[in-house]
Specification:
The structure is a single chain. The protein has 294 residues and is an alpha+beta fold. The protein has two domains: 4-92, Arc Repressor Mutant, subunit A (Orthogonal Bundle), CATH 1.10.10.10; 102-283, GAF domain (Beta-Lactamase, 2-Layer Sandwich), CATH 3.30.450.40. The protein is built from ten helices and eleven strands. It has helices at 4-10, 28-38, 49-56, 63-73, 89-100, 103-119, 161-167, 172-181, 195-208, 250-270; strands at 12-14, 20-22, 47-48, 76-78, 84-87, 122-129, 132-139, 154-156, 211-214, 221-229, 235-244. A hairpin with a 5-residue loop joins strand 4 and strand 5. It starts with a helix and ends in a 24-residue tail after the last helix.
């Protein structure tokens, strides 16, 4: 089911006595319409009414009015067969309007392009939204790849290198609360599912200024990420690059890590970040907290 737990949690609030009650300003119809839009991803171009209902955990008839309204407004369209629904450019306009408002994306793109050339693999810029990594810019390699990411993709922050470097700069009690709300999932045989071990990975990532994900999200794929700081010393994004373990061999990892950290540092400087000149180089990436978007 898509985002159902998140929507269910958000519609509740605490009253003056600390009891959980429904938020009086919450609009169920609007939230459910947005849930319908969240169903669509890059795996399928179009979804039928039955498929949408199944993904949302609704009965087959419930999504119809929402789909009809979104189609009338121009956010959805029918596929060629007339049975499936797909997103239109009007839906995408909402996301692009957001991206165009972020100077970070404009500053990052040439740096991502340069990093792609250096490491010979696709590069990405991601932010943290609650427990998900959202990719907001990228430079893709022209070579065939099994890594299917695009701008707007959302992945588990726990499983990805970008997500982990962002989580590493949150207060640890906040990460613990997130882990209690959503236990770690094993994506591959290498995935870390023990909370204590996961927290140690984050502590190490924060200390060394980067994190390596070696096949924990996708078998045979290595991904490295480093943090991007703003002028306040807050981590606002993560730069990452990913490729097969053949491309990112053990012999090349040091070179890739250094190129990645140089890119993250350059982007941080462009965002106004200035590390403490008195700090030891290994400590200069410790300052600040990962910023989350509401």
């Amino acid at each position: 089911m898509v985002h159902k737990a998140k929507f269910d949690n958000e519609k509740n609030t605490l009253d003056g006595e600390g009891k959980t009650v429904k938020d009086p300003y919450w609009v169920d119809a609007l939230a459910q319409g947005l849930q319908v839009l969240h169903v669509f991803d890059n795996e399928r171009c179009a979804l039928t009414l039955s498929e949408i209902a199944s993904k949302l955990g609704w009965n087959r008839t419930k999504p119809y009015r929402f789909l009809h309204t979104l189609e009338k407004l121009g956010y959805l369209a029918r596929d060629d067969a007339g049975r499936g629904f797909r997103l239109t450019s009007l839906s995408m306009q909402l996301g692009f309007s957001y991206l165009n408002s972020i100077p970070l994306v404009e500053l990052a793109q040439p740096l991502l392009d340069k990093l792609r050339t250096k490491v010979g693999a696709s590069t990405n810029l991601a932010i943290l939204e609650r427990d998900e990594t959202v990719f907001i810019a990228q430079a893709r390699t022209k070579l065939p790849t099994t890594i299917n990411l695009h701008v707007g993709s959302r992945l588990s922050a726990y499983a990805t290198s970008s997500g982990r470097i962002l989580l590493a700069h949150l207060p640890e009690h906040q990460v613990i609360e997130m882990l209690e709300a959503q236990p770690l999932t094993a994506w591959t045989s290498k995935s870390v599912t023990d909370p204590a071990q996961f927290l140690q990975i984050l502590r190490t990532a924060r200390k060394q200024g980067y994190v390596l994900n070696d096949g924990e999200f996708q078998e045979g794929i290595r991904s490295v990420a480093a943090p991007v700081f703003d002028a306040r010393g807050v981590v606002i994004a993560g730069v990452n690059t990913a490729a097969t373990s053949f491309v990112f061999s053990d012999e090349k990892l040091d070179q890739i890590r250094e190129a990645l950290r140089e890119t993250a540092d350059e982007l941080s400087r462009a965002m106004g970040y200035r590390p403490d000149p008195q700090a030891h180089p290994s400590d200069r990436r410790k300052f600040g907290r990962a910023g989350q978007r509401p």
